From TrEMBL:
Organism: Kribbella orskensis
UniProt domain HTH tetR-type: residue ranges: 16-76
Protein name: TetR family transcriptional regulator
Gene3D superfamilies: Tetracycline Repressor, domain 2
Residue range(s) of DNA binding per entry: 39-58
PANTHER family tied to this protein: HTH-TYPE TRANSCRIPTIONAL REGULATOR BETI (PTHR30055:SF234), HTH-TYPE TRANSCRIPTIONAL REGULATOR RUTR (PTHR30055)
Keywords on record: DNA-binding, Transcription, Transcription regulation
InterPro entries: Homeodomain-like_sf, HTH-type_TetR-like_transc_reg, HTH_TetR
Pfam family, one: TetR_N
C-alpha cells in the first residue's frame, strides 16, 4: 500500500531541508568571512528566508554554530576514544586512521570554520573542546606506537596534521570521490608513520 504524505509530513520534510540549507549557507559565510563578521541576516538572505524564519530554528548565531560543529565534535570524539579500547598493532593503526578519516571527510566543510574561528568555537564548547584536544593528543601518542622515541611522537603528530592540512589547503578535491580521497590521505599518513623507529630500534 502506497503511503500518502500528509501536509504535516511535508512540513517536517521542509523544516529539515531548511535546516540543511541554513547549515550550508552558514558554513560558506563563516569560512569566507569569518564567524564574527557574518550576521544571521546575511545567512537568512543567502538561504532565501526571513531573519524571523531563521530564528524559528536557531535562537542565536552561537546556537547555530553549536548545531553545525557539535555533530562533528561528537563523531570525532567517538573515534578518538577507541584508543582506550584497542591495543596498538599495524592493523589496528590503519583501521583507526581510516575511521578518523571517515569522520573528517564527512565533515570536511566544517574544518575551515573550526580552524579560522577557534575563539568562537572555544566560547561555544568550552570544556568539551578541551577534552577533545586532550583526546587528540592521546590519539597521536597511540599512533607513535609501542616504546616511542621523541622522533616517533613527532611523526605521529605529523601524520594527523598532514590530513588536516590537505583538507584545509583549499585545493580542488572535486575530481576525487570520498573513497579516493580517503585512500590518498590514508596512504599519506601511513607514509609519514613509516619513518618511525622499529620496536627494536626504539629500545636501543
Amino acid at each position: 500500500m502506497q503511503h500518502e504524505t500528509s501536509p504535516r509530513d511535508g512540513t517536517r520534510d521542509r523544516a529539515r531541508d531548511t535546516k540543511s540549507e541554513i547549515h550550508q549557507a552558514a558554513l560558506e559565510l563563516f569560512s569566507s568571512r569569518g564567524y564574527e563578521k557574518t550576521s544571521l541576516r546575511e545567512i537568512a538572505e543567502q538561504v532565501g528566508i526571513t531573519k524571523a524564519s531563521l530564528y524559528y530554528h536557531y535562537s542565536s548565531k552561537q546556537d547555530l554554530l553549536k548545531a553545525i560543529i557539535g555533530t562533528f565534535l561528537a563523531d570525532i570524539q567517538q573515534v578518538l576514544t577507541l584508543v582506550d579500547q584497542v591495543e596498538w598493532s599495524p592493523e589496528s593503526e590503519r583501521e583507526l586512521l581510516g575511521a578518523y578519516l571517515d569522520v573528517v571527510i564527512k565533515h570536511r566543510a566544517t574544518g575551515p570554520t573550526v580552524l579560522r574561528d577557534v575563539a568562537a568555537v572555544l566560547a561555544a564548547f568550552g570544556e568539551d573542546l578541551e577534552t577533545l584536544i586532550d583526546r587528540s593528543r592521546n590519539f597521536q601518542l597511540w599512533l607513535a606506537g609501542p616504546n616511542p622515541t621523541a622522533k616517533d611522537r613527532v611523526l605521529a603528530a605529523a601524520s594527523v596534521e598532514v590530513i588536516g592540512a590537505a583538507l584545509a589547503a583549499g585545493t580542488d578535491q572535486t575530481e576525487l570521490s570520498d573513497a579516493e580521497l580517503r585512500t590518498v590521505l590514508l596512504d599519506a599518513a601511513t607514509a609519514v608513520l613509516a619513518r618511525r623507529s622499529t620496536p627494536t630500534e626504539s629500545k636501543l
